[in-house]
Amino acid sequence: MSPGTRIERMLRIIPLRLRSLFHAGDVERELNEELTYHLEQQTAANVAAGMSPDAARTAALRAFGGVELRKEQVRDTRGTRWIEDTLGDVRFALRSLGRARGFSIAVILTLALGIGANTAMFTLLRGTMLKALPNRNGDRLVYLRLSAPGEKRVNTLFSVPEVADFRASSRTLGEIAEYSDVMPFTLVGTDGRIVRADAAVVSGNYFSVLGLDPVLGRLTDAHDDGAAAAPVAVLSSHYWMDHFGGDPGVLGRIIKMNGMPAQIVGVVQPAPQYPNPVDVFINTVTSPHHLGATMNTLRTHRMTEIFARLAPNASVEQARAEIGSIAARMIQDHPDSYQKAGQYTVALSTLRDAENAQARLTFWLLMGAAAFVLLIACANVSNLTLMRGLGREREMLLRTALGARGGRLRRLLLVENLVLALIGGGLGVLIALAGLRLLILFAAQFSPRSGEIHLDGVVLAVGVVTSIAAAIVLSYVPRIGSDRLLAASLAPASRRMTLGAGRRRVQRSLVAVQVAVCMVLLTGAGLLVRTLMNLQAVATGVRVDHVLTMSLPLGGDLIREMGDQPGNLARYTRMRDAVAALPGVSGAALGSGAPLRSSMMAFDINAENVAVRPDAPTPRAALTTVDPGYFEATGIPLVAGRDFASTDVRGSTRVVILSQSFARQLFGKENPIGRRIAPTGAVLKVTPFTGDWRTVVGVVGDTRNGGLDADVSPEMYEPFAQEVIIGASLVIRTASDPDQMKATVLRTLRAAFPDQLIEKVATVAEIRDESIATRRLNAMFIASFGGLALLIAMVGIAGVLAFSVRSRTSEIGIRMSLGADAGRVRRMVLSEGAGVLGIGLGAGAIGALFASRVLRGILFGVTPHDPITLGTVAALLGTIGVLACWLPAARAARVDPAVALRAE
Amino acid sequence: MSKPNDLVQGTLDLLVLKMLAFEPMNGWAIGQRLKQLSADVLQVSDGSLYPALHKLEQEGWVTAEWRQTENNRRAKFYSLTRAGRKQLQVEASNWDRLAHAISAVVRLQEA
């Protein structure tokens, strides 16, 4: 048939089919009437031919050949039979599943968890790994990294002369783009409000090399390179959305990047940002440092990342080989820039691999785990189905005897399982949707592409296909209507339907494995929970409650701003006093940093008249400048000597206060008060700080600025008014809830100091919790997986027991008629469950001992084989397991011996 | 030897279409007319007419409406559609070819 006539036919018959389907009543009535008319006419004709009325009617009927048969033949011509039958099957399935409510709920829940876990993991995998990069021809992009394993440095980035070498020699790389993310820039928005933005300085070809398109305006090109170009900025789309509300009017506006005016020329399409998130891309002229001699001539001044596009026809392998040889030549030509001990090497990988490097193993493992969960879920459901199938073998036999063919029965089962699986799958997708936020947060730890994770059509389709596949698999588990079965059911022993010992062992081992896996997962979660509890209990050394902090950095060009030291001191002091005067604030203090945030500045320290052993590392401490109220406001106790005073200012004797452990490290048991120390080392030279001697006037308590899990950090404090000011933080003690004071403090500061950038507004409690946020996330993640596995395993164990009870009904009947009471029967079933449970728990405990070693790195205050955790988890699992066994045990105890035996 | 009134597979459709090409008819009348015209050679079992009619209807080759008969009874009258007329031509020519081929084979002179 040609396509044209086929379409013609479709147009012709579809209305007819629809009528058959939706006006089935009318169609049937008409058929009836039509056939009745025929029979009456024939009868009348027979009578006219001389028959008696009765004989005439009988003859007419006989000639017709069975009215119902003819009706069936007519119905078959409608071509809608399969739809009607399927609808009938669906109705039937819903009815029969509605009767077996416990079974249905268990199956739907199990499948929902299995399919939900898979959908979630597939969403994760698809968003981050499987989808092509959104960049144009993203698979042709490569990323270079220079490493010096001998100096324990990975990805040192490249210097401009190195980039030039690659650009000059490489034939396999097309264009090479340069990218360097810089210290956060201060950006003055078009509304005059000052904000901080993450900026990256990029070469003009950056966007074309990366294959990115503008969503607004234009991106940079070669004309934007060099000192003569106009300063321009390209916004990333998330920054454009978040800070400019997606306003197309931003084009042409001027923003100030560290005081340098730059014109917004465009917004780039959303794309994963590697290696770091960027708000604003600027050209080299906007960052004076990038035009300087250091940047452009010093071979060891490495702050540039190399992104490149493979030349046409070049393969990744060719590029890798070529880059390797160029690098080898480069290292040979400049021996002073690459110390031999460093073992410098350059590695090339595709951009996609570079972006996925951190996530690949974790995500695939998770996908594997999810697939395993689905497998287990299907196994459990098949156990349940098998059990139900046993009860239904009579029903199936009856149907077979009444003429239903095997295919028809199979279809009935398939429809039933489809109904279950699709409901389960739908629920599963909802579960995945609910877990998506947690998933994205989790993924963001590993992948720059976490933003691309979302449920889409493909994911939904995979969910549906998974459901259907599960249903098909499950439909082939119960045996139906085979001849062997027919014979067996006619034999008197028909009710003794049990599985072979081998099959039963498989069933049980499966459940034991589930319990074991649960045990492993829950132990992991338990260890992380214990870690969190331990971390919460760690003494931070500072007051955690009722302290609000905020960072007030110097704005604009740091170097220029720092020139005005007296002005800055006066301004910060005014800010402090304005906040201190607020009602509800019981104290305010200035410091270069907030408590528990590690200081950016750390120096090697010389102590006067103390010889450092040559093999010992130079003592090193982080420097924080604080004003006289700081220790009181933060609750850091003064252990010896005095606090700073208002007289410790520029021009007076330089003084310093040490943290307790650092004082001990420097001076041992001697009294540190009155001794002198000075910063030293290579780092000092590139900072505005000096190596003058400072006299120790006090010792304060230790704090953990490196995070709750780190050791106490060596700290030194200098007077805020005596040291170089490179920014400040406010520490505010509040009488009431510090969260409620946030708004008031911010309003006051913004009103009086509109030019001041305010950042990192957080209570000390929040700062403390930041350091354990990742662990909390991981704990939640593992715990949710554990919980999921737990539910499935419990359904599994209950299913197996129920199955066993069902197939032993007559045995139980005999036992009861011989005198076993209900309690004894219950114990018998429970002990059967306990056996499986015990084996699972034992195997799980051993597994947990091995598996939790991988957690070692993120545990705190608890060993991977912590007996308390192991014991608690085992007890919990055991209890829940016994509860799960209770249902089938109770059912067994309710067996009526008379009924059970009569059924034989 | 098979009975002479056995219909070759699929020819019932052709016969029914041909009957309806003259005028709209109801099922009983079609059966009567077939017997008359073929001088009782083609004896279509009364009942088997209806599945055939409904199949033609579902294919859209015939269409049906309820009408009064001459003796004032309601009956379902079938008539040929445009598509049905085309189908009749196709099936009639198919039949011609088949009949010619078969008679050609049958008339072969045995040596």
Summarize the structure in short:
The complex is a heterodimer of chains A (904) and B (111). Chain A has 29 helices and 23 strands. Chain A has 904 residues and is of the alpha+beta class.
Give the helix/strand class of chain B.
alpha+beta
Largest interface: A-B, 31 and 22 residues
- Overall radius of gyration of chain B: 16 Å
* The CATH architecture of chain B: Orthogonal Bundle
Largest sheet of chain A: 12 strands, mixed
Rough outline of chain B: globular
Helix count of chain B equals 4
Tally of domains of chain B:
1
- Overall average pLDDT of chain A: 83
Q: Can you say what the CATH homologous superfamily of chain B is?
A: Winged helix-like DNA-binding domain superfamily/Winged helix DNA-binding domain
| Strand content bin of chain A | 5-15%
C-alpha termini separation of chain A: 60 Å
**Structure classification of chain A:** alpha+beta
- Characterize the largest beta sheet of chain B: strand count, sense, and whether it forms a barrel: 3 strands, antiparallel
Number of strands of chain A: 23
CATH topology (fold) name of chain B? Arc Repressor Mutant, subunit A
Low-confidence runs of at least 5 consecutive residues of chain B: 1-6
Number of strands of chain B: 3
How helix-rich are the residues of chain B, as a percent range?
40-55%
